[in-house]
Amino acid sequence: MSEQNLYSDIDTQRRDNGFLSLSETMALTQRGNTVLDPFSTLISVHAKIGRDNVFYPSVTLRADRPEAIVIGNANTFYPMSYLEASGPDTNGSENNYPSIEGGVIEIGSGNQFGPEGGVSIKANSPGTCIKIGDNGRYLSGAMLLGNSTFGDGAQVLGSITVQNCILEAGDPFSGQDPDLRAAVIKGRGLIRGQTIHTGKVAVVGEASSQITLHEQSYFHPKKG
Questions:
Q1: Max CA-CA distance within the chain?
Q2: CA-CA distance, 105 to 96, in Å (whole number)?
Q3: Gene3D superfamilies from the xrefs (predicted)?
Q4: Please, are residues 36 and 25 in contact by the beta-carbon 8 Å criterion?
Q5: β partners of residue 20
Q6: Cα–Cα distance between 113 and 82 in angstroms, integer?
Q7: Cα separation of 183 and 214, whole Å?
Q8: The domain 16-86+102-132: what is its CATH number?
Q9: pTM, to two decimals
């Protein structure tokens, strides 16, 4: 197989599955984005991408309709970051919801997704919306689901499934006063249907019944 035919076959498979071609993926760099490995980076034709984002290898953005994924500027997506905004199955099953739109993911600017285990963000059930503000961190295997809002500066640190939660906004992790920083969830396990307030850390065990709340200054002394 010639190199030209190889690239053509790769692009055909990408388009058949709703992803940008190799050249379309690299065209994102014209707006200051960095795509370190276009061969392993899959970005939906329906995703709206801002400027100056960095995409490491093995990043996937999957969406099934225009602007189901909207990304701002200067975010970093480390390897194994997976975003999916999709609707219900429309193959004739009894679970069809033909009149209800699928999920939406909205991401602001200056966030870090990964590394160390990647991050999964899935708005893949009818009417769900995951909103992520600016300057947050989502690391080490975090999974974000359902109707969830992560305010400016919020952090999810660890192999935690966060479903239908609100993390209130505040200063980013570098802020001088830890009790003014945005809400944080850390640990391992599941947290569902919770609101974590500014300046608080929710420490999650193996089950949601084991959530413990602390002031952030419990873990981090004030700076200055």
A1: 63
A2: 21
A3: Hexapeptide repeat proteins
A4: no
A5: none
A6: 10
A7: 11
A8: 2.160.10
A9: 0.89
